[in-house]
Input
Amino acid sequence: MVFAHDTEESLLAAVALVNSAEAPETLTTVAELEAFYDRFDYTGRHDRTRTELDQVRDLRPRLRALLLADRDEAVRMVNEILSEARAVPQLVRHQPLDWHIHAVPPEAPLATRIGVETAMAMIDVIRADEHARLGVCADGDCLGLVLDLSRNRSKRFCSVACGNRNAVAAYRARQAATE
Ligand SMILES: [Zn+2]
Ligand SMILES: [Zn+2]
Output
């Protein structure tokens, strides 16, 4: 594990959220937001409304900028998000997790909580100076984000589809070169 469990979960969720803006766009319906909520084991307020969906969708460009920011810019953005939300870090324990940090109450809007969770996770990235773990997909046509949590820092593609497409292209290029 590169970071604490809850940090890694928050970063994975943030990357999935940001990548949902890439074509073919997902997170376009309340049902898709509900699936996202379940997939990343969110707890707390979940309105299941168009307003909530729009707030979460509108968060995506800001999170993308945060995840790709250099270290000093990330610090500025994290501090801004935490003060805007009047975050007060508290250790909490609820199923299925052991002690971890919530910095805003469970009744805060979902988009606020996702933003604050991402900011809290970025605190660990900043302190460990591990920004190289975050980047853009190595596929030349893809703008998806990649979070590399592998021990040997080998993850380069945002998805299995991008990885496979590039493996096939590399194979064809090798075949053509030997013909
Ligand atoms: Zn929690
Ligand atoms: Zn990709």
